[in-house]
Hints:
A hairpin with a 7-residue loop joins strand 16 and strand 17. The longest helix has 19 residues, at about 590-610. The protein is about 5% helix and about 40% strand. The protein folds into six domains: about 5-175, no CATH class; about 265-310, Ribbon (Complement Module, domain 1), CATH 2.10.70.80; about 315-390, Wheat Germ Agglutinin (Isolectin 2), domain 1; about 395-485, Immunoglobulins (Immunoglobulin-like, Sandwich), CATH 2.60.40.10; about 490-570, Sandwich (Immunoglobulin-like), CATH 2.60.40; about 575-640 and about 645-680, 2-Layer Sandwich (Alpha-Beta Plaits), CATH 3.30.70. InterPro entries: Ig-like_fold (IPR013783), PKD_dom (IPR000601), PKD_dom_sf (IPR035986), Sortilin_C (IPR031777), Sortilin_N (IPR031778), VPS10 (IPR006581), VPS10-sortilin (IPR050310).
Amino acid sequence: QDLQIISTDENQVFVAVQEWYQTDTYNLYQSDPQGVYYSILLENVRSTKQPEENVLIDILEVRGVKGVFLANQKIDGKVTTLITYNKGRDWDFLKPPDIDMNGKPTNCKPPDCYLHLHLRWADNPYVSGTVHTKDTAPGLIMGAGNLGSQLVEYKEEMYITSDCGNTWRQVFEEEHHILYLDHGGVIVAIKDTSIPLKILKFSIDEGQTWSTHNFTSTSVFVDGLLSEPGDETLVMTVFGHISYRSDWELVKVDFRPSFPRECTDDDYESWELTNLQGDRCIMGQQRSFRKRKVSSWCIKGRSFTSALTSKVCECVNSDFLCDYGFERSAPLKSESSKCFADFWFNPEAPPEDCVLGQAYTSSTGYRKVVSNVCEGGVDLQQNLAQHMCPLIAPKGLQISLREESLAVKPGEDVTFIVKQEQGDTLNTKYQVDLGDGFKAIYVNLTMTGEPIRHRYENPGIYRVSVKADNVAGHDEAVVFVQVSSPLQALNLEVVPVIGRNQEVNLTAIILPKNPNLTVFYWWIGNNLQPLLTLESFLVTKFGETGDVRVTVQASCGSSMLQDSKVVHVFDHFHVLPLKFTKHLDMYNPDIPEWREDIGRVVTRLLAKETNIAEETLMTVVKPGLPTTADLHVLLPTNQPKRKRSVTSDKRIAAIKQALNAHNISFFLRGGYWVLVTLADSNSDSQRLGGGSGYWAIVVLFVICLVAVGAFILYKFKRQ
Length: 719
């Protein structure tokens, strides 16, 4: 689900990976020296989501001593702190102190009780986080946490170690901001609180004793701590504000007058780095450091170096960790445990880049920890078995378009890329079929990386396949390419008036048609979830009366168009089916605009002749030939319900009278008249739901055709 880079030091990558089953934890992985193959180090490291989707992983690289990390592991809701001295090969709990800061017994005994630390960064960049370390102060770690069986969020007691986590001491009962001066020779602490302060605490003996100092006469709200450039500095600045409306107050604190002299060699003593088991050989060497004696009151200065000596050790089992594809049986135990192959990994299998005729070595399950400098002794990598690379069947064959989109236009250049994850490539033939009759056989296709270029001239869906074949086996990859012209026009045709709960056909007309290549999205009313069809029509019903907006989107390739119409849904109205004389069919271009114009003309003439409100009449010309139409006679909205049928009958009678009197006709340019007559004088119209008669309107039409080349352009002059 997510990946966070933890460290890229010393030719190695540490990453935290959140896998599909994790919500608030990550698994810690470590790479080989090339950063390609990763092995798991620690599972279920706690994570915390911050504002703006930032994620904090509870793992901290201890500065000053290479290979030392702290991590918080969360299992079954319980968070515990772990430490490693060899880059995650072994993890252990932090040993609790025997007494607290007041000299009383802590009664904290393993395995039921350990020390746990908060490993979070500070939101304020001018204060320390909950754990503070420094490159020039090796072994010195100061952090906030608690004693117990697990980490408690509201407990932030301060603990310190000067031997890199072997022994810990409690120094404060509340969290403090920490600043190291003079290579850790002076530790400054100011309480993390929301109340104003004027006292700071400092220690010159690695936290064994603490002194107080009034850094200002007026209490201030502390916003941060800063030291002057240089690790040897003894000058710091406290900045804050007296009130929330005041400007910043900067207070300089200079510890130099407190030290009478520079330190000499006699003022230092050495200490050796060991892990929690007391082993001195860590990361393949014994390392000793020097620190100032407790009794010496002097300045370390710019020339101070903490590293004293280092001695290379003979290799032992703990200098090796599990190789890629292997896991340890007891990852938290420091004692030696064997590495076993994962269920998905075959140690004898040849590598993916194995070439026929070359040799490869199979892993024993171990490799030396990166940056470990041990020599001689145990070598868990010895006796590696040599194998000759066999002919490997192709596997993981892929074909894709460089343009990334699988929808292209006719005549557009298309570039196919063929890749193969595993298997032999030198002795493999690749049969390519581009789906339009083009077929070819390639050799070394995936090695050369040369793309296959092609161009499809005609719209359609093309099945593109590539088959890799050698003596050991074969593999095939298929991709479907959609070749279509961009949509140019979309028109939604729907009967504007429909009865409640009656079926209605919604039809989308597109140009060009692109059959089987267009997807239609239908939105009915205020529904946010569209209906999807491959057909250009949808049959539906409307259960409520009123105006319903219908919207259709047509998607073809990378183009998308939209049209929208309003359907009026009624309980009662009349429909008079109409038909026209054959003269009209000769000039019917069968396009939506023409049908709309004809419908408006007929509606306007009927309304004018009968004095019926035009908004209650609607003539809908149907698609196709012969030319037909429906005349919808709507009930007036302001008419009382009990009088509607009478009123409707009078209006229909008026329409019938106008038609019988041959009063409905109009003239088009060209001088050609058509007489209007009734097709069936004995029929009558009925309400919606009953039978209906057919009224004929014979309209006088003259169509002016203008031919240009091979095109016939239609323009109906709107009246």
